[in-house]
Design brief:
By secondary structure, this protein is α/β, with parallel strands linked by helices. The protein is built from 12 helices and 20 strands. It has a domain of about 250 residues: Carbamate kinase. It starts with a strand and ends in a 5-residue tail after the last helix.
Length: about 425
């Protein structure tokens, strides 16, 4: 390995949960320093620290200011970076820890779900030139008003990839408690296999469809700035899954039609009945939701002979309260008869760049589900993804039969 590269290494909370695991992380960092060159490390809060801080906040408030919650939750990563720097010093390696603010991470002002605008990496570069290992707190930054912000669950992944982009790093290693991306959740199907290589588009679809191994915005950053990612385990030396630009035509021909099967139980279906079918209704409805930073996934509209529309859409579970309040305000501008909230739904998806050149994938998916007695309530597609909303009680069975039908069987078409 040439010792003139720059890499970014990210370690999740489970990887730094205690002193023994911190020592293991130090071994990996020291190996990289000796064999690669410039090393920047991004870490999450130790173990369940973030959850504990949330519970602490709940002991004094039932709702809580998002700004103050960001101030509180950002302290978790500050402990991690200091502990890791101290451990490396003890091993004789010069290192320096930076909070998100000190690392020059500028975000927008959406507290608890901030997006990185830019990174002024000059301070990181200076310390690398002095041959130090730089440790950056994940999950946090600062807005233009000087307020501490956090990037949402999984935000340390995004921090790592954004720092790698700012430094033009050779690659970014994301260490976690699994040793790569699998064709489906191994906890549901023991036949799941590790995927050696994925395109950015495939990983984007996997992340947005329920695969929780990598933060969605981290993949978006990687694609935009062409950051090569290796997703691997903190607890073994296996290669992991490489995520990079689209593979060449020859490799595409050899790829399976379906790369993986994902599921997402964190779905709620909202149905608005009795809407007038006139121009602008959907715009007003989804404009209000967008104004509250509510992410809408699948959408279906039906219109009766009397020009009365029914619109169904899905949201994340954590957005239910604000969605209900927003729809109450909708009544002031739009007349509708009633709203139905269905919390017993889930989403199952098949993903693969090979689907683009193979007709009949959707019909096969629908037949597999039908033959298993699973009813499809909503459908959404992209060139490399097909998603279905089904009953939550059927989701594990759906994952198993689709994985068997598209991945484990020899005939993948």
């Amino acid at each position: 390995m040439a010792k003139n590269k720059t890499i970014v290494m990210k370690f999740g909370g489970s990887s730094v949960a205690n002193t023994e695991k911190i020592d293991n992380v130090c071994n990996k960092i020291i190996y990289a320093k000796k064999n690669v060159g410039n090393v920047v490390v991004t870490v999450s809060a130790m173990g369940k620290t973030t959850d504990q801080l949330i519970e602490l906040a709940r002991s004094v408030t039932s709702s809580g200011s998002r700004r103050e919650m960001d101030v509180l939750l950002s302290t978790g990563e500050q402990v991690s970076i200091a502990m890791l720097a101290l451990a490396l010093h003890e091993r004789g390696y010069e290192s320096i820890s930076f909070t998100g603010i000190q690392a020059g991470i500028l975000t927008d002002s959406v507290h608890s779900e901030a997006k990185i605008i830019k990174i002024n990496a000059s301070r990181i570069v200076k310390e690398l030139k002095d041959d130090k290992i730089v440790i950056v707190a994940g999950f946090q930054g600062i807005d233009k008003e000087g307020n501490i912000t956090t990037l949402g669950r999984g935000g340390s992944d995004t921090t790592a990839v954004a720092v790698a982009a700012a430094l033009h790093a050779d690659y970014c290693e994301i260490y976690t408690d699994v040793d790569g991306v699998y064709t489906t959740d191994p906890n549901i199907d023991a036949n799941a296999k590790k995927i050696e290589r994925l395109s950015y588009d495939e990983m984007l679809e996997l992340a947005s469809s329920g695969a929780k191994v990598l933060h969605l915005r981290a993949v978006e950053f990687a694609k935009k700035y062409d950051v090569v990612i290796n997703l691997r385990s903190s607890f073994n030396e296996n290669e992991g899954t490489w995520i990079m630009d689209d593979i060449n035509d020859k490799e595409k021909m050899e790829k399976p039609v379906v790369t993986g099967v994902t599921h997402d139980n964190n779905q709620i279906k909202v149905t608005v009945f009795g809407l007038k079918d006139i121009p602008g209704i959907a715009s007003k409805l989804f404009g209000l939701l967008a104004g509250q930073d509510i992410n809408v996934d699948l959408i279906v509209q039906n219109v009766s002979e009397e020009n009365i529309a029914t619109i169904s859409f899905t949201i994340k579970g954590e957005d239910l309260d604000i969605t209900e309040k927003t729809l109450e305000r909708l009544k002031e501008n739009i007349d509708y008869s009633k709203i139905d909230i269905d919390e017993e739904v889930a989403k199952v998806s098949i993903i693969g760049s090979g689907m683009q050149s193979h007709p009949g994938v959707a019909s096969k998916m629908f037949k597999i589900l039908a033959d298993t007695g699973i009813n499809i309530e909503m459908i959404s597609t992209s060139p490399i993804r097909i998603s279905c909303i089904i009953r939550k009680s059927k989701i594990k069975n759906a994952v198993k039969v689709l994985h068997k039908g598209f991945v484990t069987e020899t005939d993948n078409i």
